[in-house]
Design goal:
- The chain is built from three helices and eleven strands.
- It is mainly β.
- The longest helix is centred in the N-terminal third of the chain and has 12 residues, at 9-20.
């Protein structure tokens, strides 16, 4: 197999890219948090953190108590894991409930929104997407249909806790 792979340019390129990939770990202390209409996000495996993955990206999203993301769809797949909290997604008008420990699948081109059903605690979701692959191919689409609902954006009760799950606390 090694002899075969030496003669195939794309296998050689992939092997060289693998050897050149210097950054293999993104430290929690180095995460950069940003707020946008989808919530509060920290990109982990992404070109902005110096990890040049051509296939996958990973990020954490905080959805504040009682808040929701904007309605959107994209042509890439996304999988999520609920680190903390409870809520529901709306996929093409259908509600799908989730809670801590659940996994989510968002198929391509499904209009969706993530909603935190807890009025006192943030929901924390870890997402992995294949958007870099589609971006690398020049075919990524992301369409924002509606901003986050004004009445729930950033809403916090008097006793609201903004405490990251133990796994991400150092980065928060």
């Amino acid at each position: 197999m090694e002899k075969f792979s030496r003669g195939v340019h794309y296998v050689q390129t992939a092997s060289e890219g693998r050897r050149r990939a210097k950054k293999r770990v993104v430290r929690a202390k180095d995460l950069k948090w940003e707020e946008n209409m989808q919530g509060r996000n920290a990109y982990i495996i992404d070109s902005i953190t110096g990890v040049n993955s051509k296939n996958l990206a990973m990020f954490i999203r905080e959805i504040p108590p009682g808040a929701a993301t904007g309605v959107h769809h994209h042509n890439f797949e996304a999988v999520g894991y609920v680190l903390e909290g409870r809520g529901h997604d709306i996929h093409d008008g259908r509600s799908v409930s989730w809670a801590k420990g659940d996994g989510l699948y968002i198929p391509p081109l499904v209009e969706h929104q993530h909603v935190n059903d807890d009025s006192k605690r943030s929901a924390w979701l870890l997402f992995i997407t294949n958007w870099p692959l589609l971006s690398h191919l020049g075919i990524t689409t992301f369409v924002q249909s509606a901003a986050a609902p004004h009445e729930t954006r950033g809403k916090r009760g008097r006793n609201a806790r903004r405490r990251a799950p133990r796994a991400v606390r150092a980065a928060h």
